[in-house]
């Protein structure tokens, strides 16, 4: 007997609704849910493999605890006893900063990851906080923090309505979009073209997205900030600005960018001045337009400046906060909107990392600095001696995995919350495995705030927890208790504490629908089968569309959401300014001081011309960072760890298609098969990330059969965007040579066998 169940796909940011076919306790099929209010039936090959990802036999079923040097299966009780016994003495002896926390990408794809990490950090009181954001989008948070006073206020292109879309360093045909949640991003780009709109792509590679574009600019990696600055300069120079209201500092920006003329930047960007002028004019002439930058504009030396310039262009052309431009979504679980007015602003560098004195951003230190924070003693304070890693695999995702590998091995104690025993988790003393997605509830707290249409959906677990499993929400609640000296307390107390605090605060806020009410009475009105569900109910009811605990009877609540299993549409993106602004002026602050202070560095970049090859990354549709290479259905074919190199570069260097090549960077050397293709521009080579599954002590049997190499070994962690602490992962200088050294025959044979 089979049945079906709905489940929002957690495998990328598009959040498609799936209809799962379930036989017994297994997902045997996944289709797009045609009735889903947002995704309307769309599914990609990854979503279609949901069952295979879910049922991977290498997923851990029980906790692992290290005994006599070996990780062995253990009960949950033994595992949390070990966590408390391992972490508490470190905190008590060396202080809170000696316990580091690493939060990885899948935290934004789980309810547990949305609801508990903030409590974990607050409970520990540690400043040793590292997340995947500093190998990803931290520059965007910083530029939004500075411009809008809120690091989470990120404008999203109005894909369904824009007339002109400028994509910079993004390849949504492979990634399915990021910081822009849009099921069927490819379809939306095709629809844009079908309605007469224009698509422009700036990317050093001729990606599948670039192939769809009306205009593709193969910019030199790392120079987007110069290109965008020149576009802004053209807008000023030719009188093409009509800035968005509520903005201050427009003239100051005009002054600050005066030198960045198209002629001045052309050589550095390797884009002709006339082309830059045309890009600016077309942007200004379009009835509506949106500029959108992603990984390729963030993970570069001027990531924050490029992210800032993306919004400067949207603002100067009047496209910020108008339909068809770039707007601020309003999610159902957003805080109750407060009245517009000045806020507290955004501060950077409130403290610094111990070893290299990197400024914090958004309360985080650069993931690039994790290894040195563990392995380097200084007089400033204690190194990180214990580490809690939740849904992260920094040995592969962060610079210099070999150094981090050794640093992790030197820790006094380490905990991983991860379904796999992978390159990072193999160092843990305790591994706490969450259940597979089919057994977990789902709501997109994070991605709904970046969605191209306001909507809300919730799916309960499609399959009940199998015996011996623990919900990830409970795992994290118990972890919080174990590391904060409350080991053994009821995990429900964690949710209750949040509910009491949130409601206690809400009743005191004049703009809250529950102002003046009794928080204890409100708490009794919450529904839901679990603590996390009650917290979701609370957030929905206090939120911008909520029922306000009875004040707006038609408003949202968990019950209402459960009655709409395919979700509730909340309409297109709408103008919201000035309400979301939290700057001290209450305006968009177009030239914040930290940005002005960083512009001289950009000016110096005008003179830089990298002589040799530079490396960029790439993503493959059937993959996801470091953790989907263990699913046979998602590997093979074009999803391989090869070095893309332009035919002219290949010829000059004597590199043959399919033959192994050595790639050398500041942090080390790797050997990968060459794939000669003019899809990369001259002077640029490309390797995907998340590979390198050849370390011993992991349990990734399929991934180990075609391990690939770790591109991040080419980095030494010193290249950062200074304002955000974001790692520079693109535009990195490398040397490339055919693999010819004697003694490497076996490697060569193995690699050619794979081609
Ligand atoms: N060179 C280079 N490096 C990059 C990038 C790049 O473009 N180029 N991209 C960067 C980006 S954008 C990111 S976001 C990072 C990602 O870096 P990380 O977050 O460190 O890595 P991931 O591979 O996304 O997966 C993290 C871990 O989460 C586990 N996991 C999967 N599902 C769950 C779950 O439901 N619960 C829990 N607890 N764990 C789960 C996986 O097994 C895996 O071990 O990598 C970055 N690294
Ligand atoms: N299939 C798949 N989907 C994913 C992921 C995955 O690993 N696989 N990861 C998810 C995650 S965590 C994220 S953050 C998103 C990322 O989503 P995207 O940003 O869309 O990801 P990428 O495909 O890496 O696209 C980045 C593009 O930037 C280009 N680029 C490199 N350097 C430069 C530069 O200096 N300038 C410009 N203009 N372009 C440059 C690269 O060639 C590449 O095509 O994808 C998410 N979705
Ligand atoms: S596009 Fe993303 S969310 Fe949609 S089915 Fe594919 S992996 Fe899942
Ligand atoms: Mo990411």
From TrEMBL:
Residues 2-58 form the 4Fe-4S Mo/W bis-MGD-type domain. Transmembrane segments: none annotated. One of its GO terms (cellular component) is membrane. One of its GO terms (molecular function) is metal ion binding. It holds the Pfam family Molybdopterin. SUPFAM superfamilies: ADC-like, Formate dehydrogenase/DMSO reductase, domains 1-3. SMART domains: Molybdop_Fe4S4 (SM00926). Keywords: 4Fe-4S, Iron, Iron-sulfur, Metal-binding, Oxidoreductase. InterPro entries: Asp_de-COase-like_dom_sf (IPR009010), MoPterin_dinucl-bd_dom (IPR006657), Mopterin_OxRdtase (IPR006656), Mopterin_OxRdtase_4Fe-4S_dom (IPR006963), Prok_molybdopt-oxidoreductase (IPR050123). This is Molybdopterin oxidoreductase family protein. It comes from Streptomyces coeruleorubidus.
């Amino acid at each position: 007997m089979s049945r079906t169940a709905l489940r929002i796909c957690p495998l990328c940011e598009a959040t498609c609704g799936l209809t799962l076919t379930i036989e017994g306790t297994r997902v045997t099929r996944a289709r797009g849910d045609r009735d889903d209010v947002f995704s309307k039936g769309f599914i990609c090959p990854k979503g279609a493999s949901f069952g295979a990802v879910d049922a991977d036999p290498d997923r851990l079923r029980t906790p692992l605890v290290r005994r006599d040097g070996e990780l062995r299966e253990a009960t949950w009780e033994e595992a949390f006893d070990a966590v408390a016994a391992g972490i508490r003495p470190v905190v008590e002896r060396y202080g809170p900063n000696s316990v580091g926390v690493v939060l990885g990408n899948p935290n934004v794809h789980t309810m547990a990851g949305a609801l508990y990490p903030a409590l974990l950090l607050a409970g520990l009181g540690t400043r040793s906080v590292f997340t995947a954001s500093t190998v990803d989008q931290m520059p965007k948070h910083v530029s939004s923090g500075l411009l809008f006073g809120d690091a989470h206020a990120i404008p999203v292109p109005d894909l369904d309505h824009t007339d002109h879309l400028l994509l910079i360093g993004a390849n949504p045909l492979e990634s399915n979009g990021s910081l822009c949640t849009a099921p069927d991003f490819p379809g939306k780009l095709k629809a844009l073209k079908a309605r007469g709109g224009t698509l422009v792509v700036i990317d050093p590679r001729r990606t599948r997205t670039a192939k769809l574009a009306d205009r593709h600019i193969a910019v030199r990696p790392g120079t987007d900030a110069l290109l965008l600055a020149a576009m802004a300069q053209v807008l000023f120079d030719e009188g093409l600005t009509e800035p968005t209201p509520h903005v201050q500092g427009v003239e100051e920006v005009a002054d600050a960018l005066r030198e960045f003329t198209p002629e001045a930047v052309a050589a550095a960007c390797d884009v002709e001045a006339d082309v830059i002028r045309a890009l600016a004019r077309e942007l200004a002439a379009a009835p509506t337009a949106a500029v959108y930058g992603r990984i390729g504009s963030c993970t570069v030396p001027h990531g924050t400046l490029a992210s800032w310039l993306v919004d400067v262009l949207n603002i100067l052309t009047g496209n910020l906060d108008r339909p068809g431009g770039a707007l601020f979504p309003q999610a159902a679980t957003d805080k109750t909107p407060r009245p517009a007015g000045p806020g507290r602003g955004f501060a950077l560098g409130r403290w610094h990392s111990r070893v290299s004195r990197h400024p914090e951003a958004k309360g985080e230190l650069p993931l690039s600095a994790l290894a040195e924070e563990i392995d380097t003693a200084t007089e400033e304070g204690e190194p990180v001696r214990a580490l809690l890693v939740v849904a992260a695999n920094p040995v592969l995702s962060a610079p210099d995995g070999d150094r981090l590998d050794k640093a992790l091995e030197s820790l006094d104690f380490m905990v991983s919350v991860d379904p796999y025993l992978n390159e990072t988790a193999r160092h843990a003393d305790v591994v706490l495995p969450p259940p597979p997605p089919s057994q977990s509830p789902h709501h997109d707290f994070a991605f709904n705030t970046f969605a191209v249409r306001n909507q809300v959906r919730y799916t309960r677990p499609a399959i009940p927890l199998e015996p011996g499993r623990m919900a990830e929400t409970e795992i994290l609640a118990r972890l919080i208790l174990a590391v904060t000296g409350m080991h053994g307390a009821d995990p429900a107390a964690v949710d209750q504490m949040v509910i009491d605090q949130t409601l206690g605060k809400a009743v005191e806020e004049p703009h809250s629908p529950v102002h003046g009410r009794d928080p204890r009475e409100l708490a009794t009105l919450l529904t839901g089968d679990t603590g996390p569900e009650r917290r979701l109910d609370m957030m929905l009811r206090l939120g911008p569309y909520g029922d306000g605990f009875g004040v707006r009877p038609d408003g949202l609540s968990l019950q209402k959401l459960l009655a709409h299993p395919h979700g509730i549409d909340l309409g297109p993106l709408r103008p919201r300014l000035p309400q979301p602004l939290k700057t001290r002026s209450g305006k968009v602050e177009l030239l914040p001081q930290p940005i002005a202070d960083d512009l001289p560095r950009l000016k110096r970049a005008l003179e830089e011309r990298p002589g040799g090859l530079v490396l960029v990354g790439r993503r493959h549709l059937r993959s996801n960072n470091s953790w989907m290479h263990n699913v046979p259905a998602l590997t093979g074919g074009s999803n391989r760890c090869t070095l893309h190199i332009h035919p002219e570069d290949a010829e000059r260097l004597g590199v043959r298609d399919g033959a192994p090549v050595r790639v050398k960077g500041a942090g080390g050397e790797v050997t990968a098969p060459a794939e000669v293709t003019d899809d990369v521009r001259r002077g640029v080579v490309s390797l995907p990330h998340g590979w390198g599954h050849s370390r011993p002590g992991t349990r990734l049997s399929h991934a180990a059969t075609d391990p690939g190499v770790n591109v991040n070994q080419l980095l030494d962690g010193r290249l950062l965007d200074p304002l955000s602490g974001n790692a520079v992962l693109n535009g990195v200088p490398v040397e490339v040579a055919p693999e010819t050294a004697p003694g490497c025959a076996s490697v060569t044979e193995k690699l050619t066998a794979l081609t």
